[in-house]
Every structure is written in C-alpha cells, then in structure tokens.
Amino acid sequence: MQSGFAQNLSWQGYFSFNEIKDVSESSTTVYAASENALFSKNAATNTVKTATTVEGLSGQTISAVYYSEAFKKTIVGYENGLMIVINETDGSMLKVVDIINKQLAPNLKKINHFMEHNGLVYVSCDFGIVQFNLTTLQFGDTYFIGDNGAEISVKQTAFFNGFIYAATSSGIRRANSTSPNLNDFSQWTVVNSGDWSSVEALDTELIAINTVGYIHRFNSVTFVGFLQLPQPSVDMRAKNHNLFITIPNSVYIYNNQMILNRQISNTQVLDNTINITCATAVGDIIYIGTKEKGLFSSSFSSNGVFENTTPTGPARNNIYSLDVTPNALWTVYGDYDSFYNPYPLDSYGVSKYNTSGWLNIPYSEVYDAKSMTKIIVNPTNEKQVYASSFFSGLLKIEDDVPNFLYNEKNSGLESITTEGPNYIDVRINGTAFDKTGNLWITNSRIKNGLKVLRTNGQWGSYSMTSIIDNAEASSYANIVIDRNSVKWIATNRDGVVGFNEATNTFRKMTFGADAGNLPIADVRSIAIDAKNQLWIGTTKGLRVLSNISSFQNDSQLKANPIIIMEDDLAQELLYEQFITSIAVDGANNKWIGTADSGVFMVSPNGQETRYHFTISNSPLPGNVINDIKINSTTGEVFIATNKGMISFKGIATGANEDLNNVYVYPNPVRPTYSGTVKVAGLIDKANIKITDIEGNLVYETTSEGGTIEWDTTAFGRYKVASGVYMIFISAQDGGETKVKKVMIIR
C-alpha cells in the first residue's frame, strides 16, 4: 500500500536524530536510521537529506536499514515487523505489512538485518528469515529454520561460497542457496551450536561472533574462536575489504586477513559517556553511530578527529512539555508517571528552536535540575524563560543561559514534608504569568501549594489547606489565569481549584453532581478560551465551565459535558478519554491531546470535530500526546508526542485589530502549487468576496479569526482559469474595506 495522507495539510517535523539504530551506505552516501527518522549524507557534495513521518515514515521504532545500490532503494525495518521501501529516485514510499500481518506473536516480528543477494533481500527476523524480491517488491518464502521448523530468532545472515549462513539464538545454521526448497527446515544444518549475535563474509573469510563477544573464524568445517572482546558486540559489517566490529565503547577495524588495523574508542569520538551502536565507511570516511549524540565521521587518514554529522533537532524525541512564542519554541524532556512520581529521576537539558535552528542546553548547565516537566517564556520579555523541575525547584534562563535555580534554600519554594526532615524534593510544575508580569507557580505535596514570584523579586505563598482536604498529598498539573485575574489550578485529587487574590477566596469543582460535576477529581489540563470559558481535561473526559465570572456569586461552580449528536444519539464529547492537554487557537477552536488516541480539534463550542489526527491518518508519530501549544502569530500548532514533535500549519491565526496588515499568499499561484490560497491578517468576522476581473463572484466567506483559505475553485465546482482575481474584504459593520489581487497561473 502506498503511503501518503488524505489531508493535504502542511505539516512539519521536529525530530531528534540522536539515537542511531543502524547505518547503511552506497559508494557516495551514508544512510542513517534514528529511532523513527532517517537521514543521508553525500560525502562528496555534503548534502544532507532527512525523512520523517511527515514524508510517510512510521512513528514506530526502526530496528534496521539497508540501501541497495543496484536497485536505488532504501529498506527500513521496524521492531513491529513493518517494512518501508523508499525509491530514492523519486522519494516515494511503499509500506509493506506482510510481516506485521503474519499469524505470529507480536513480540517475534522485529526485523534485525537485511542481506541482499542476486536481487533478493533476506530479512532476518525474530521468528526466522523472509525473502523479499527487489524487482517485484513482493515477499517470497518464509524460512522457519529452528529445530523441527520452530520459530527462531535470526540476528544476521551472510552469503559465503554458495551457502546462506544464519546467526541465530540457537546456533549458526546454513543451507545451500541453490536448494529449491529452503523453506524446508531440514535443509538448514547446525554448523556450531550456541547463541550467536552476528555472521558476516569478509572476502575469503567468514566471521561470526557469539552473544558473549567471542569472535570466531570459519575454517571451512566449523567456527573456531580466536579473540574475546571486552564487551558483547552490537554490530558487525564488512565494507571495502575491512571488517567493522562495534562494541558499546569501541570500534575495531580489521583487514581481510583479520589483522587489526585500527581501534577507535568512544573517548576519541567524543567522550566516555556515549555508547557506540554501529560503524561503517564510505570511501575514505569512517562513520560511527551513537545512542546519544547521533552520527560522527572522520577520514581514515585524519588520525581520529571526529565531527558530528547529525541533522539538528531537539535533544530527544520524547518532548514532555513545550512553550512557543511568535519567535521561539522551548522544550523540556523530564517527566512523571500517571501518579505524579518523577522517579527514576532524569538528567536532561533544555532545547530552544528559532529561525537560526536548534540550541540544546546540556544537563551540565542546568544546576543539576532533574526531571524538568514544564517550561514557560515571559510574554513581556522573550529573553526570560523558566523551566519547572518536578524535583529540584525552578530554573531561570536568561539570554539562552541558565543563571539561577530557585529552591527551598533561596526562595519561597518548599520541599515535600511527608518523607522526613532530611528528604529534599521540590516539586514545581504549572506556571503562568499574570497581566502585571508576576509568575504564579504550583508547588506540589505541601500545605502552601500556590506560590508567586513578583516582579520585584519578592515571593508570595498561599495555603491550600482551606480548600483541599489533604494538601500534602496533592499534586498539581497546569495553572491558568483568566481575564478577571482568577487563578485556576488543575489538581489530581480535588478537581479544579480557583483562587481570587483580590478577595482572597478559593472555590473548587470536583467529582460529583453537587460538587462541581467533574467525571473524576483527577484533572490533567485546563485552558481558558476566547469567550472566557474554562475547558477542563480530566483522566476520564472533558468538562466546560461556561461562565467563569460565576466565581464571584455562585457558591458552587458547576462544569458540564459537551453533548453532541452522533448517529441520532446524544453522546458526550471525548467520553472517558484521558485528556493530557488543551490548547485554544486564534479562531477559538480547541486542540485536545489524549493519552492514547491522538489529537482532536473541535469547533469553538465543541459541537463539531473538525480533525482527529492519529498515527494512522496523519504524520503524528505517536498517539500519546504530551503537550500542545500554538504560535499565536502564525497559527502553527505544535504537538509533542512520546515519539517526536510535529507541527500543523493550520489556518487559525489570531484576529487583527484592523485590515492594515492583510496579505495574500502564495501570490502568484504557480502551476506546480497544489495547496490553497490564504488571505491572512484579517479581523474577525470579515466578509471576503473573490471575483474574476469581469466581476463574476467565484468565492465568498466570513473569517473566523485572522486567516481564510480558498481552494482556487469557483464555489467548489471547478478550478478557476488563469488570470487576476480581485479579493474584496469588508468589516462586519461595513466600516472598513480593503481590496487585494491574486494572480493564478495554470
């Protein structure tokens, strides 16, 4: 089945290429696979190409990659058995699902290795070997080569002197490649018993390594051990009459007489913290893949000066939280489990993306702040950023440099108290700036759970004990501030808590018809929309508080579900869904992320689901949504999943105050362009009429927010002809008008 998505929408991928799973090569180019993305680098021209889910790859984890020079095709193998064949001449991708669809246990389908011989690729899997024909792009026979035809994990195959050799978990096995029925297990004989990780042909030698790292040579009858590696090997491949054997801290390069030419340690590549995953060569250049820092290269002659050749990206794919401003995007990678437990604590830095690319601030520069789970940019000063650590306090970053960590010693923040006096654990999560620039902060598992860092540097602290039964057991998600300056806090045990600083009053909505009408007391995300309504995402569904100002007069706030008609039945929108994030775009649509069902985009009142993006109908790399944030200027929606971040260049930008900034793009519309024409910089509820040069109306609409799209058809009936088209824009009250032109070339 050919890949490609039904929606002709503009997506962009922001993937990490740092965890190299496998490499392959042609005579000029290295091909590298990271967790779920690919890149290639041409050594002669230095051009780098990348491919992610946006181009049609799967978000699943890649386990093997192979480039066939003869067929100009790249084959990607996945842990779940999926195969994708990329035609390098035109970039098209073919998804091959035969292995996934086999009636086998799902944990046996991992693809370990590809070996090409005579136009066939032998695919080593955790159940056996499958033959794939590069001409027809069809699978041939499957070989179950264990005893009595049992499933057996095959790690690698090699072709040598007319035989196919397989390194398996139960011996090295071989069969005559000309045998007509290799799918008969009795054709496969055991050469050596034991558990083997690799086998490879190197000119006149055949080499195999067992799982404890003992290298063996074949003496035409059996494999004889000749060297014990200090660690088990993770990769072995022959290239240009050399053999590359990789262990996590070194690469050994042997010539075809099995004499060690060179040993490269991880300290020579970078430092002793990295783990090497694979190595190969293209001409005179050695490429070394690592688990943490991507791909490094060095020429054989340069005596070991390595440079990083990885495309830039975030430090990791599992972005837990982000913040976006008109000019920059910030990400953090710390996390906690569904019970707000940050252990095992993690040590990751912070990343920033802007027009000049990615800046990754390493862990060594963040004052040992562990498990950073939220990040916020000061809306009045983009140079000031705060990252919340769910263990160490609040990290301040100025001009892209971390310069202070607020904790229990130097600020109003407090450590949890329930674990004894010597246990320090400062759990900071949700943050929000108010209109005057004060930063409001949630501090979990203490009595005074609401903090504020005022613009003058003074700290304020508010007790939650009057509104929450057991504040020292409570954890908080995010905090939002409404137009009336009321602070709303998502909690895990007490629903949503509202706090009015002016009157020093607390209110809450929690589980139960008379207590706030939430489906459960565990709230994970809250957002305020353009109509001053509070949208509440719980671990069991969605609720809306339609009138926030009822905070002042109603003794009990009450949230309601959104009831939609589906198949003539009244249903609750997002019934029982675990909601992880809610973002409101410039047209007041709601973008709602879930823990396992992807992203829903619903109309301002929630009555219409306009998009539901999942891994199966969009470039979303995973259905686990960690966070969603929207660039208010461009309308770009950033979606962070546990397998990578992508953005949707939607059309919902914030409405403008007047029509002075209206622009049309693209203009002119060239024959190669297949997308829509966008009219941006609009005021809300503007009337837009598009006519041909004679004045015949071809399109009319009213804007919601700052942008509209025209599909260049006459009311959807047919594509309009080449020519100049007039765009008449008028405000709802008729008080302001603008005229624009767009040129269409067919």
- Distance, first to last CA: 31 Å
* CATH top level label of one domain: Mainly Beta
* Biggest β-sheet description: 4 strands, antiparallel
Architecture of one domain in CATH?
Answer: Sandwich
By CATH, the superfamily of one domain comes out as Outer membrane usher protein
Q: Spans of 5+ residues with little confidence (pLDDT < 50)?
A: 1-8
Strand order of the largest sheet: 1-57-56-55
- The CATH topology of one domain corresponds to Immunoglobulin-like
Q: What integer value in Å does the Rg equal? A: 30 Å
Global geometry: globular
Tell me the helix content.
under 10%
Q: How would you classify the quaternary structure?
A: single chain
Name the beta content range. Answer: over 45%
The number of E-state strands comes to 64
InterPro entries: PorZ_N, Secre_tail, WD40/YVTN_repeat-like_dom_sf
Keywords: Signal
Organism: Flavobacterium saccharophilum
Protein name: PorZ N-terminal beta-propeller domain-containing protein
Please describe what this structure looks like.
By secondary structure, the protein is mainly β. It has a domain at 663-744: Sandwich (Immunoglobulin-like), CATH 2.60.40.3110. The chain is built from 2 helices and 64 strands. The strands form 17 sheets. A 4-stranded antiparallel sheet has the order 1-57-56-55, with no helix packed on it. Strands 2-3-4-5 form a 4-stranded antiparallel sheet, with no helix packed on it. The model is unreliable at 1-8 (pLDDT under 50).
Secondary structure layout:
Blueprint: E1 11-14, E2 22-25, E3 29-33, E4 38-42, E5 48-51, E6 62-68, E7 73-78, E8 83-87, E9 93-96, E10 111-117, E11 120-125, E12 129-133, E13 138-143, E14 154-160, E15 163-168, E16 171-176, E17 189-192, E18 196-202, E19 205-210, E20 214-218, E21 223-228, E22 235-239, E23 242-247, E24 250-255, E25 260-265, H1 266-269, E26 276-282, E27 285-290, E28 295-299, E29 307-308, E30 321-324, E31 329-332, E32 350-354, E33 357-361, E34 372-378, E35 381-389, E36 393-398, E37 401-406, E38 428-433, E39 439-443, E40 450-453, E41 459-462, E42 476-481, E43 487-491, E44 496-500, E45 505-509, E46 523-528, E47 534-538, E48 541-545, H2 550-553, E49 563-566, E50 569-572, E51 579-584, E52 590-594, E53 599-602, E54 609-613, E55 625-630, E56 636-641, E57 644-649, E58 663-665, E59 677-680, E60 687-692, E61 697-702, E62 707-710, E63 723-730, E64 737-744
Antiparallel strand pairs: 1-57, 2-3, 3-4, 4-5, 6-7, 7-8, 8-9, 10-11, 11-12, 12-13, 14-15, 15-16, 16-17, 18-19, 19-20, 20-21, 22-23, 23-24, 24-25, 26-27, 27-28, 28-29, 30-31, 31-32, 32-33, 34-35, 35-36, 36-37, 38-39, 39-40, 40-41, 42-43, 43-44, 44-45, 46-47, 47-48, 49-50, 51-52, 52-53, 53-54, ...
